């Protein structure tokens, strides 16, 4: 549920405030369309996660949700961590650690079998 909230808020900001975000990051306003598409992706993941929040996840159950989230958060975390190593801004380290925490949690769910109710 936490991932759906984080992704939902981030996606909404990217969809509705792309020019403002580009300006605050000192980027070209032309990047706004990329931010909006990225926001749509995040919002779509948020809706998938929110819809699956009461489903059994783990083992073979909810495999598509787990694989999608695991690959997104793991790959994204590594990419952001690499950017941090070159840039040095601590906000990117914080974002990378958040991503990798979600990757670890989704990986844990993927490798364990759910307990019966």
UniProtKB/TrEMBL annotation:
* Swiss-Prot/TrEMBL keywords: Membrane, Transmembrane, Transmembrane helix
Q: Which residues are listed as membrane-spanning?
A: 32-52, 64-84, 90-110
Q: What is this protein called?
A: Uncharacterized protein
Q: Which organism is it from?
A: Marinigracilibium pacificum
């Amino acid at each position: 549920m936490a991932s759906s909230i984080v992704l939902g808020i981030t996606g909404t900001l990217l969809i509705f405030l792309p020019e403002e975000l580009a300006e605050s990051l000192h980027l070209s306003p032309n990047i706004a369309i990329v931010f909006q598409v990225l926001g749509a992706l995040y919002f779509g993941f948020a809706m998938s996660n929110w819809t699956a929040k009461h489903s059994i996840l783990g083992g073979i159950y909810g495999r598509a949700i787990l694989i999608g989230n695991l690959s997104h958060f793991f790959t994204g975390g590594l990419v952001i961590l690499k950017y941090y190593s070159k840039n040095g801004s601590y906000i990117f380290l914080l974002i990378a650690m958040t991503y990798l925490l979600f990757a670890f949690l989704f990986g844990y769910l993927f490798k364990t079998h759910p307990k019966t109710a």
